Amino acid sequence: MKSIKKSKEQRYILIKNKGVIKKINIEDISHITCSGYLSTIHLLNDNKNYSHCKLLKEYEVELMGKGFYRINRNTLININYIFEINFINKPILELINKLKFRVSKRRKKELLLII
Fold it and tell me: Which domain holds residue 79?
């Protein structure tokens, strides 16, 4: 009997919405935001956003070890796309697509260790 080889690392996530399953490459995701049970995946080079009924915590677990970090209660960012972090006054993180996000005080020290 042949054994099935598993890929070393999953490079995509699947989003199911209204009976349609969309395959999104992880490296294309710049950040994920959340409002309640609705998470929105934002792609770096595409103006499309994908909303999905899934908690941000679930995405955090799924993307653990794949270059993502939760910077506050509502935002998970791809650390490969960080352009600048400004710690004057309130910590603000800017991605290469010019979007800015507030970094929570308790996540600030760990973020510095990761990048």
Answer: 12-114
Three-class SS state of 74: coil
Is the Cβ–Cβ distance between 66 and 37 less than 8 Å? no
The two three-digit tokens of residue 24, written as one number = 């999104």
* Confidence at residue 2, expressed as pLDDT on a 0 to 100 scale: 39
Instruction: Return the CATH number at 28.
Output: 2.40.50.1020
Compute how many other C-beta atoms are within 10 angstroms of the C-beta atom of residue 33: 19
Could you tell me if residue 109 is inside a domain? yes
Report how many domains make up the chain: 1
Instruction: Classify residue 4: in a domain, yes or no.
Output: no
Q: pLDDT by residue (tens digit) across 62-97? A: 998 899 999 999 999 999 999 999 988 889 999 999
Count of Cβ atoms closer than 10 Å to residue 48 Cβ: 9
Residue with tokens 């935001």: 33
Q: Which among 35, 63, 62 is positioned nearest to 51, based on CA atoms?
A: 35
